[in-house]
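Hey, resending since the last one bounced:
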Amino acid sequence: MRLFLGIPLAAEVIGELASTVARLRSDGDGLRWTARESWHVTLRFLGNVGWEEYNCVVARLRELRVPTVHMRLEHLGFFDRSGILYAGVTVTPELLLLQRRVTTATRLCGFAPDARPYQPHITLARSKGNGQRQGIAALKTKISRPQTFTGFVAEEFLLYESFLGPGGSRYEIRERFALGGS
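The structure tokens again:
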């Protein structure tokens, strides 16, 4: 199983992002747009996981007591080297606490922590193929004003299984973990 942990978005925020994407998207733009059903804020990517590790992760995450997390998308941005358009997420103390506790829980099951600093975001589009960054460059000219998004409170985080396919990844929810404990 190819697994990761993430926070689902509120329906209102998904609607706002969908409107933004509809305004930016165009035929033949050289981009692969992510499906709105796949939008989430990743907490931790686990990769390929066996059943023993899966059971360990689920048990450890069930033990977590973490408060709800106030979430807000803050801007549209680009990871130029990888050809990605994303919506950035405000880093709050509550979000960092959740991410750290998830990392600690999964480390107990044999998953090494990420070497890179945590940079929460929602991937909206990717360049198709190597060297096709014209689509990203064209997008930069379309984004002229800052976006504003509705804030929401995350009351759960999810364990997703990722299925790779020719049209991109498809995600299925494997487990739900409630937030709201102290």
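The beta strands are 2-8, 31-33, 40-48, 69-71, 73-79, 84-89, 121-127, 152-154, 156-165, 168-178.

Sorry for the duplicate.
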